[in-house]
TrEMBL record:
Originating species: Pisum sativum
Residue ranges annotated for the Exocyst complex component Sec10-like alpha-helical bundle domain, each copy included: 1-123
GO cellular component: exocyst
BP terms from Gene Ontology: exocytosis; Golgi to plasma membrane transport
Superkingdom field: Eukaryota
Protein name, UniProt field: Exocyst complex component S10b, variant 2
InterPro entries on file: Sec10-like, Sec10_HB
Amino acid sequence: VQRSGSIVAIIQQYFTNSISRLLLPVDGAHAAACEEMATAMSSAEAAAYKGLQQCIETVMAEVERLLSAEQKATDYKSPDDGMAPDHRPTTACTRVVAYLSRVLESAFTALEGLNKQAFLSELVWYFIFDH
């Protein structure tokens, strides 16, 4: 995503500095080229969004897999059983936190700006509401 963002910025800069200026004197060509450029950028953004959405779905599937494999019924002790609550993290919790830490490290390295913000917001939303 980081590379594609850089490439898009280079393309936009080249279009603005070179191609767009050449088309200004040609009747209707400048407007058509700008419209085509906007359509291409929109398609690129949609593809990036779809890819990030698939990443989030994959992350959440792995979280669910880890929880299914590691959680035990004894992890959920009722306060009614007379035992003091154990506030230590369970094995399942520890594994999920470690996995999400690696995901976040990768996201902070690979994403920037609004892409990072959108990805992290979506990931948190899925984690809180779909988990």
